[in-house]
Specification:
single chain; 330 residues; alpha+beta; Hypothetical Protein Ta1238, Chain: A; Beta-Lactamase; four-stranded antiparallel sheet; two-stranded antiparallel sheet; elongated
């Protein structure tokens, strides 16, 4: 059987039931856009890492076939269809949206599309689904279209948005994990902090805190983010215990001072929302610094208790001592 028939050469096509319409008919535009969205979802399914989302996209593509078939059916002909979208199908999308949102936290502000290849495919699919929704809304103003179809497309675009953000976050977390594992696997003798060095660094930080009159908590971790030493001065806030440790861990995990991380997690930034992946572990405001030796991160220090500016000044006092000691060693 030939794939081409020649029946569409005059710019017409058949709806389900046999009715001939022009190829620029609004129904044709609606189900054609849904088909385009499904094709992008197929590409996204091949490009993303998360296995659960791969299966979810496959199920969505199957539902879109039902949706497209209904859009391709003129009024009065939908009774021919053996299966149609239901409110339960919409509920499945909403449950998936809620599950992902619970993992990555609330999304606020504008985010640049993409970030990874898989996220880019998802974002393109999202915009095509949005277009399909707009075309279907216009169609519904002229002909009968079940509300479930419009609602399903609306929820699907929301789901694809969150899946794209989740894909970016997973990639960042994977990179951080690999860096930490790489350090742990390649660490050589002398490329780490000793407990004695950690305490010296804490003494330097606390001396600076005393000069500023700010009681703080100081934490020092090794190159794998493991806690070496932590001290809470009299009067320091209890909440500062976890914050100080989190700052030190974040500085090591991301290999940068935490005040620099703060710039990257703003809405639209490449690390927006990353702190939601490890609540309490990743702290994205100033006061944490990585410690280097021979170009390798061998530890980190975190300070909490004052303002962000004060925490940074106090932590920097310890970093300066470390840099002086390392300089003398080399």
């Amino acid at each position: 059987m030939k794939i081409y028939t020649g029946t569409g050469d005059e710019g017409q096509t058949s709806l389900l039931g046999g009715q001939r319409v022009a190829k620029d008919n609004l129904r044709v535009e609606a189900y054609g856009t849904v088909d385009e969205a499904s094709s992008w979802l197929g590409l996204a399914r091949a490009g993303i890492r998360d296995q659960e989302n791969k299966e979810r996209l496959k199920e969505v593509q199957q539902k879109l076939q039902l949706l497209a078939a209904e859009l391709a059916s003129p009024p009065g002909e939908t009774g021919r269809l053996k299966e149609r979208l239901t409110a339960e199908d919409i509920g499945e999308l909403e449950r998936a949206i809620d599950a992902i949102a619970a993992k990555i936290g609330p999304q606020k502000g504008f985010v640049l599309p993409g970030g990874t290849l898989g996220a880019g495919y998802l974002d393109v699919a999202r915009t095509v689904v949005r277009r399909a929704e707009r075309v279907t809304v216009i169609l519904a103003q002229r002909e009968e279209v079940r509300k479930e179809i419009i609602v399903y497309l609306n929820r699907l675009s929301d789901l694809l948005y969150l899946m794209a953000r989740q894909e970016v976050f997973r990639e960042v977390v994977q990179q951080v994990t690999e860096k930490v594992k790489g350090y742990m696997g390649n660490n050589r003798q002398g490329e780490t902090l000793s407990l004695a060095q950690a305490r010296k660094l804490m003494e330097a930080a606390e001396a600076k805190a005393g000069q500023l009159g700010v009681p703080v908590v100081t934490a020092v971790v090794d190159g794998g983010g493991n806690l070496l030493s932590l001290d809470r001065q009299d009067g320091a806030l209890l909440a500062s215990i976890e914050l100080a440790r989190g700052k030190a861990y974040t500085a090591v995990a991301l290999k940068m001072p935490t005040h620099e991380v703060a710039k990257l997690v703003q809405p639209g930034g490449p690390l927006y929302g990353i702190e939601n992946f490890q609540p309490g572990s990743l702290v994205v405001f100033g006061g944490g610094y990585p410690l280097y030796r021979d170009g390798q991160v061998v530890g980190g220090i975190g300070v909490s208790g004052g303002t962000v500016a004060e925490d940074m000044i106090i932590a920097r006092a310890a970093v300066e001592l470390w840099e002086e000691v390392v300089g003398h060693d080399t």
